[in-house]
Design goal:
It is built from 2 helices and 2 strands, in the order H-E-H-E. The chain is an alpha+beta fold. A two-stranded parallel ribbon has the order 1-2. The relative contact order is 0.25.
């Protein structure tokens, strides 16, 4: 397995989708900071679910 660390600028959904284009999956936290209180996942995870062509794995934070 190959793991990299990189600091990117730009919109999180677009950047994650771009750099993970050839990934087997992407893992993101599911704690949303905006939206409404009943939201189960954050906006980044939600955006990736609609844009990614690979599995998006969400994990609880904290």
């Amino acid at each position: 397995m190959h793991v990299t660390h990189e600091v990117l600028t730009g919109h999180p959904v677009g950047e994650l989708a771009r750099v993970a284009e050839h990934a087997l999956a992407v893992v993101v936290g599911r704690r949303g900071r905006g939206g409404y209180t009943g939201m189960r996942i954050g906006s980044v995870a939600h955006g990736l679910l609609h844009r990614a062509h690979y599995p998006v794995i969400t994990v609880p934070t904290g």
